[in-house]
Amino acid sequence: MDLSEDVTPEQVELCRRFEVLPVAAAAALNTGVSRSMLSRGLRRGVSLSSGPSSVNWPVYGVREALEGGTTGWYLWTGEYSRADDFYVPWHTAHLREGWPEVVPYLALPPGWRFVIAPGYEDVWFERPDG
After folding, report:
1. Do the beta carbons of residue 97 and residue 45 sit within 8 Å?
2. Are 73 and 25 in contact (CB under 8 A)?
3. What is the rounded CA–CA span in Å between residue 126 and residue 25?
4. Backbone angles phi, psi at 79, to 5 degrees
């Protein structure tokens, strides 16, 4: 398996757990994130290991097909919305600093989803046709 610098050993291990090959979420590409994630992403030093704090948990992640300079990932916290402006593009590199607890999941291939919170993890594959 040829791994790029965009796939970490932690991501490889998580993909092994679920018996899938990693698909990089390149740091230079955009990931769709909710505005609620941006506010925490701009405050350093808050992580899953430091407890719930004021962050809305859980974090939800859905990976669609990679297209148009994106990773295919859509991440959110709090109440989901179908509004056109619910997601904003954010360079994936910023997730490594602002949301390090989501990084292990970012190499899961399209079709995979996750929900994480302090002391909780749910990861599954969902076919595109539901």
Report:
1. no
2. yes
3. 19
4. -75, 130
Q: Tokens 């740091």 label which residue? A: 27
pLDDT tens, the chain, 130 aa long: 445 668 999 999 999 999 999 999 999 999 999 998 987 655 444 444 444 445 678 999 999 999 999 999 999 998 999 999 999 999 999 998 889 999 999 999 999 999 999 999 999 999 876 5
Distance CA 119, CA 104 (A): 15
Instruction: Name the token pair of 20.
Output: 């899938």
CA nearest neighbour of 123 among 73, 65, 75, 62: 62
The C-alpha atoms of residue 8 and residue 37 are separated, in whole angstroms, by: 22
Cβ atoms of 89 and 82 closer than 8 Å: no
The Cα–Cα gap between 10 and 31 comes to 19
Coil/strand/helix, residue 122:
strand
- What's the rounded Cα separation, in Å, for the pair 18 and 108? 9
